[in-house]
Amino acid sequence: LYHRALLVQPNNAEWHYRAGVCAGKIGDQAEASSEFELAFGLDRHHLRAAEGLARSLPPSTPEWRKFRVLQDLLRAHPTVPIALAFAQSAFKMERYRYCIEALETLSRSEELGRREKVLLGRAYILAGMPKEARALLSAMAEQSTNSVINARGAGHFLQVEADWAGAVELYKMSWESGSRDPEVAFGIGYCLDRQYLWEEAAVWYETALRSPAGDREYWYYKYALALERTDKPRLAAEAYARALVLGKFAQRAWFYR
Question: Is the pLDDT of residue 256 over 60?
């Protein structure tokens, strides 16, 4: 019906917006996006059309085009949904300064959620601003009620996001600033392990295991794997044997012998 009406008044922004809403409700994301874009083009003050376009850009849209469209939308309507969508697109485009600017601007008027804070922390790291990343994510760690997060600090959040290199950088900053918690050492080893840097990972696993609190079966198991992958079978066997004594990961330890 809206399409029929638009044959009579093709420049009616509100009708294009409503056609977009209907298309979205039946799952036609491409049609919804097209109608929202037409509505916004006809009336740049149409906030609902702008936010509709920001959330309905199809996955097949090239990232460079998403970035341009969202940047244009943000200039007209600096709202939370548009700012978040733009920040995510800027990050994917490796335009980290744009991502940082959008999220920092938003944080002055809104409390960022966990996901957005982690995104900002990752952008800081990749933009060469590790101190800012550590300050932001360390504050999150201090507020957590999880003892592991408290111990591992800022690096934990990037580890959870599988940003292994960024996590290592923040973990090492924590270690070098005086933290000698074995959780941090193990975190460094684990993130190096995930990058296939087994020799360096083994050094950090060993550091974690030297702590009185480091006698843990999983830690010995990961240490043994790293040793095995660096052609140190005798040391690996000893670590597997300790994992067996501690018990929990016995089947996997026997498999790798």
Answer: no
Least Cα distance to 110 among 82, 138, 88, 134 occurs for: 82
Rounded CA separation 26/120 (Å): 34
- The DSSP result for 185-199, as a single string, is HHHHHHHHHTTT-HH
Report how far Cα 22 is from the mean position of its chain's Cα atoms: 33
Q: Which two tokens stand for residue 167?
A: 């996590």
CA dist., res. 95 & res. 140, Å (int): 24
Q: How far apart are CA 247 and CA 2, in angstroms?
A: 67
Residue 154, CA distances (Å) to 32, 47, 111, 184, 219 in order: 40, 37, 19, 10, 21
pLDDT in tens, 78-129: 888 999 999 999 999 999 999 999 999 999 888 888 889 989 998 998 898 9
- Whole-structure pTM value: 0.70
What whole-number distance in Å separates Cα of residue 115 and Cα of residue 123? 12
Summary count for the chain: helices (H), strands (E):
17, 0
Handedness of CA 51, 57, 59, 64 (dihedral sign): negative
Residue 110: its H or E element: none
Residue 206 host element (H or E): helix 198-210
CA distance 71 to 159: 30
- Provide the sign of the torsion angle of the four alpha carbons 160, 166, 170, 175, taken in this order: positive
Q: Where are the alpha helices (DSSP H) in 43-163?
A: 47-56, 63-76, 80-92, 96-107, 114-126, 130-143, 147-152, 154-160
SS3 88: helix
* Residue 134 to residues 21, 57, 72, 139, 183, Cα–Cα distance (Å): 42, 33, 31, 8, 17
